[in-house]
Design a protein that fits this description.
61 residues, mainly alpha, 1 helix
Length: 61
């Protein structure tokens, strides 16, 4: 049985792989941030509506 050396990827291949993984990570980070921002704005909008309704109710009395 001939002993074969495990091939290590060339520096170029490693660089490309790192770049691709970095881009995937960046895309995931952007998506996550946008999701969080959307839920935050929804929450703020609901809160503002609730305060408006409360204020209108107080004015009517």
């Amino acid at each position: 049985m001939a002993h074969k050396r495990i091939q290590t990827p060339s520096a170029q291949t490693a660089g490309i792989a790192t770049l691709i993984l970095g881009l995937i990570g960046l895309a995931a980070g952007i998506w996550y941030y946008r999701e969080q921002a959307a839920t935050r704005s929804q929450r703020l909008r609901r809160q503002a509506n609730r305060q408006l309704r409360r204020a209108e109710r107080k004015l009517r009395r």
